[in-house]
Amino acid sequence: MAICLETRQVSKFFGGLIAVDKIDLEISEKSIYSIIGPNGAGKTTLFNCISGYYTPERGSILYFDQEVQGLSTNVIASIGVARTYQNIRLFKEMTAIENVLIGQQPHLRTNWVDAIVHTKRYFSEENETLEEGRRLLKFVGLEGMGDSLARNLPYGAQRRLEIARALANHPKLLLLDEPTAGMNPQETEVMKEFIHGLRDQLSLTIILIEHDMRVVMGISDRISVLDHGTKIAEGTPAEIQSNQRVIEAYLGAGTEALTEKYRRKKLQ
């Protein structure tokens, strides 16, 4: 299996704070890979380095063997890396379909001259993007909601819309930052199955930050655990559940990531 993403000794500093310290990851293509750890462990900072929001001070990030650290977010998006956010970042005064169309921006071929003159290429691309937007809304379960303002959609639907906007970029790698945050158990179960479907139906590689251990253990091929910016463990769900260092790090931090189910079982 090809390696989709590899990080080598990636480190990110904020003044005297080491947010991410010498992180090595190797993530196979078409896998679901989870990154877990207590709040402040460096998970989102690592995502921001991968997606171009931060440039690491040290180390390298390879996307299908191409070094991407230091590239702009636009360039990284254009080569097939898309993401969502812990806090939903939709354009809430725009409609659902308009949000998805924005996600297609890196791949549009027309320019401002086409838009002003209304060339044949402009109308052709406009029709293509609208059709693709409707297809993506249907794929994520929002068919018929294209004209609804994003702010008027239920919470779970907003999460799906954000994913639809990310998919509009035609990614090969999808970064999901706490996709089930704020969801009730039923919504969480639906999202878990949906993430499975994204990988299986679209052949995506998915990297997931998630605090719900039922989700993590239920869908991950491999898991890395961060604590205070360093990777303290990596392995299959079964290996992580029985790793004493992981148990101690979580229990010591008192993190909400451990559900009562896994506390009672002591991750065994």
CATH topology of the largest domain: Rossmann fold
Which CATH architecture of the largest domain would you pick? 3-Layer(aba) Sandwich
Distance between the termini: 30 Å
Number of H- or I-type helical stretches? 11
Query: Which secondary-structure class do the elements indicate?
Result: alpha/beta
Which whole number gives the mean pLDDT? 86
Q: How is the largest sheet built, in terms of strand order?
A: 6-7-8-3-9-10
**Highest-level CATH class of the largest domain:** Alpha Beta
Going by CATH, what is the homologous superfamily of the largest domain?
A: P-loop containing nucleotide triphosphate hydrolases
What does the oligomeric state look like here? single chain
Radius of gyration: 19 Å
**Spans of at least 5 consecutive residues with low confidence:** 251-268
Largest sheet: 6 strands, mixed
Question: How many domains make up the coordinates?
Answer: 2
What does this structure look like?
The protein is α/β, with parallel strands linked by helices. It has two domains: 1-80 and 172-268, P-loop containing nucleotide triphosphate hydrolases (Rossmann fold, 3-Layer(aba) Sandwich); 94-170, no CATH class. It has helices at 43-50, 73-78, 96-103, 112-117, 120-139, 155-167, 185-202, 213-219, 237-241, 244-253, 260-265; strands at residues 3-14, 17-28, 32-36, 58-63, 66-67, 81-83, 173-177, 205-209, 222-227, 230-235. The strands form two sheets. It has a six-stranded mixed β-sheet, with helices on both faces. It has a four-stranded antiparallel β-sheet with strand order 2-1-4-5, covered by helices on one side. Helix 3 packs across helix 5, helix 3 packs parallel to helix 6 (155-167) and helix 5 (120-139) crosses helix 6 (155-167).
